[in-house]
Design brief:
- The chain has 291 residues and is α+β, with helices and mostly antiparallel strands.
- It has a domain at 32-135 and 185-273: Chloramphenicol Acetyltransferase (2-Layer Sandwich).
- It has 8 helices and 9 strands.
- It has helices at residues 3-6, 17-25, 43-56, 62-76, 122-137, 142-153, 156-172, 252-267; strands at 33-41, 82-85, 88-91, 97-103, 108-114, 190-194, 215-219, 223-229, 232-246.
- Strands 1, 4, 5, 6, 7, 8 and 9 form a 7-stranded mixed β-sheet that branches. A two-stranded antiparallel ribbon has the order 2-3.
- A hairpin with a 2-residue loop joins strand 2 and strand 3.
- Helix 2 (17-25) packs across helix 7 and helix 4 crosses helix 8.
- 27% of the residues are buried.
Length: 291
C-alpha cells in the first residue's frame, strides 16, 4: 500500500493568515472558559439605530451598540478590566474593545481595537470603525500588514513559541515593544464579533490565549421570535449573544451585574447618549493586589 493510499489526513495548503496563527494559539483544553447565552429584546434598540442613522448619517449597526454596551458594563465593574499576568490580576486604565472583522471575502479574520469606547457615542464608534476597516480591507493599515507579513513568514514550528514569547514580554513583563512593530495591548478589554452577518443566530468563541482578553462577545442575527407578553404570544425581534469569559476573572455574580447594565442600555440607549469622561485611572480605584 502506498503512502498516499494509507494517508487519512492531508495538510491544508497554503496555510496563512489567521488560520495559520490559530493552529499554534491553542493547546488541548485546560482553560477556565465559561460560556453563557443572553437573549435580548431588540425592539427599542433597532428603533434607536434607525433614528440615529437618520439624524447623523452614520452607518450605525447592532455591532456598534453591543460594543458600547459591553464597554459601559466593564466600566461599571473596573475590577474585571484587566489581565492575568504571573499569577496576579493586573488592571487596565481604559476600556478598549477589539472588533473582529472578516476580510478577503470571509477567508480570513482580522480586527481593530477602538480605545475608550465607554467615552464615545455609537455614531463615533461607527465612523471610526468604518474608516479603519476600509483601510484594513484595502490593505492600507501598515501595522496590520507588517504583523501579518511577519507571522506568515515564520516557520510553523516557531509560530506558537513566538506568540507566547510576545505575550509574555508585553503582558507579564509589561514591556513596550512598539519600536519593533508590536502594538502594546493590541486586543483590549473585550472582543466583539458579529456572526449574525453570516446568518448564525448564536455561537460561542474561544478565548484567545496570547491576547490576554478575558471576555469575548459574539453577536447573533436579530430574528423575529415568539415571546409571551401579558399572557399572549407575540412576535418580537430578539438577539442572542454568545458570551465567553475567563473564570479567573469573573463569576456568575459579576457576570449578572454586567448583564443588568447591558440590558438597561439596550432597552433605552438614549439614556446613555451623553458619554462622560472616564475616571483618571480605573486601576487607582481598586486596592493594590497583594504580592
Amino acid at each position: 500500500m502506498t503512502d498516499a493510499m494509507a494517508r487519512t489526513f492531508r495538510p491544508l495548503e497554503p496555510l496563512k493568515g489567521w488560520r495559520r496563527v490559530a493552529t499554534q494559539a491553542w493547546r488541548p483544553p485546560q482553560d477556565p472558559s465559561v460560556y453563557a447565552t443572553l437573549d435580548v429584546p431588540m425592539g427599542p434598540a433597532l428603533a434607536y439605530l434607525g433614528r440615529l442613522r437618520a439624524e447623523t448619517g452614520a452607518r450605525v449597526t447592532v455591532t456598534h451598540l453591543v460594543a458600547r454596551g459591553t464597554a459601559l458594563a466593564i466600566r461599571q465593574n473596573p475590577q474585571l478590566n484587566g489581565i492575568v499576568a504571573r499569577g496576579r490580576i493586573m488592571l487596565r486604565d481604559t476600556v478598549d474593545i477589539f472588533l473582529q472583522v472578516a476580510i478577503e471575502g470571509g477567508g480570513d479574520l482580522s480586527g481593530i481595537k477602538i480605545a475608550r469606547v465607554d467615552e464615545k457615542d455609537v455614531a463615533e464608534i461607527a465612523r471610526e470603525m468604518e474608516e479603519r476597516v476600509a483601510r484594513l480591507r484595502q490593505r492600507r493599515d501598515r501595522q496590520v500588514e507588517r504583523t501579518k507579513s511577519i507571522l506568515d513568514r515564520l516557520p510553523l514550528r516557531l509560530l506558537g513559541p513566538f506568540l507566547r514569547l510576545i505575550s509574555y514580554l508585553v503582558y507579564d513583563l509589561d514591556l513596550d515593544l512598539s519600536r519593533f512593530g508590536v502594538v502594546k495591548d493590541e486586543f483590549g478589554s473585550a472582543m466583539v464579533t458579529n456572526v449574525g452577518t453570516f446568518g448564525l443566530a448564536h455561537a460561542y468563541a474561544p478565548l484567545v490565549p496570547f491576547s490576554r482578553t478575558p471576555l469575548v462577545v459574539l453577536v447573533g442575527e436579530v430574528q423575529e421570535r415568539a415571546v409571551v407578553e401579558d399572557g399572549r404570544v407575540v412576535a418580537r425581534p430578539i438577539m442572542t449573544l454568545g458570551v465567553t469569559f475567563d473564570h479567573r476573572f469573573m463569576d456568575g455574580f459579576q457576570g449578572g451585574r454586567m448583564v443588568q447594565l447591558f440590558r438597561a442600555y439596550l432597552e433605552n440607549p438614549e439614556r446613555f447618549d451623553q458619554p462622560q469622561p472616564a475616571p483618571p485611572s480605573l486601576a487607582a480605584a481598586m486596592p493594590s493586589p497583594r504580592s
